Amino acid sequence: MAWSLIHAGWMHLLLALINAHDWTMRYVTTFSTQVFSLLNSIIYFHKAIQELQRAHDNLSFAAFLYAIIGAIGTTLAAIFLSTAERWKPLFHPYIRMGLTEYAAAISIIIFIGMPHVGELASLDRSTLHVSTSFKPSSPDRTQFFVQFWHLPVGWIFAAIIPGFIITVLFFFDHEVSSIICTIDRYGTRKPSGFAWDIVLLGMTTALCGILGIPPANGLLPQAPLHSESLMHTEKEEILISVDGEEKVEHRDVRRVHEQRWSAFLHAGAILVFVSPPFQHVLGLMPTSVLAGLFMFMGEQSLSVNPILYRFFYLLTPPSELPKLPAEIRSYRGVHAYTLLQIVITIVIFVVTLTIAAPVFPVLIIILVPIRLLLMNRLWDRKVLRFVDAWACRKGTPEDDKDLLAGEVDEKTGAAPRLPDETIRDV
Length: 426
What we know:
This protein is mainly alpha-helical. It has helices spanning 2-17, 20-24, 30-58, 61-82, 93-101, 103-113, 153-158, 160-180, 194-211, 222-229, 261-273, 279-282, 287-303, 306-314, 332-352, 360-378, 381-387, 397-405, 420-425; strands at 231-242, 245-256. The radius of gyration is 24 Å and the shape is globular.
């Protein structure tokens, strides 16, 4: 594993040096990013079920029933607190923001303490396994660093293949999460540092390989959650023209607080709680609470995925569906597009449960040429323009082709379509 992560580390640095974001993600559409986001949601839910299955095998029946209550309670409490920003006029705005930002942490603390109250204290429970001393957790290791230099040369070169797969997964995960947490609805003003982020990710990945620990990465849905929790309303002055006279109009605009403190505090808290004696505090967490956290993460990722809302369209009577643009006759193409995304996600998830699991990032990448080269032959171009768009730039693949054919409005630079927010918010 050490050499696989070391190879992944220098591959990340290479991607940053050549500014890979500009010439890779420019071809990615929301078709692929939505599938990837949905896959992450399903994996989180699956991990939660696995934790509850282990609780069923290791605990008494009464303790298992409470484990289910604890998992669901952690999820519901976190979801409830995550809506604190909309509790206005209750509490000070900064209090509401803090409750939203740390909804999961507050919920976890509540349900860590609850099993120690009253008769619940007599129930057996399964908690996280943590190290109680400053030494490697594996009994087979006496030092923190892996002696990776003892591996035969042939195996060192063979490790390039899993290193490449890890790089593909991490790069795509990071790019998608960065795109999602800086979309137009968040009103971010500072540009994203894609290349610097990839440099840091490569360094930490290589360091994890040298230390012999699993690489730490996975920004979905944490990054969008962070942006959501920092949303606030600002007053913005806009010049409007009324009867040839310019006037200033004040409008409420939703934006995120762009600061570095919350990310810094998150990193600092992680550093503190992975070191003794604070690891003991983590050891108090029941695995059922961890299952609840997984469900909360899955729910938060799923709740902002347009696939979910287009799936609801499948269950909605035709008379109740929102009106489509005039050039689209029916929802048939939209429904087929949604079902294809769901089927592809399920197929990739099944692959992750088999021996072929390491290649699933490659399947995600293959979706890009499928969308650009195959789907435009099977779907009406107007439908694709309605449901899909470039992930990192304005417009759609169909707009680009129409521009070459002279069919796009010269003023707007794009053919008429509804934004993704419309699909999501309906």
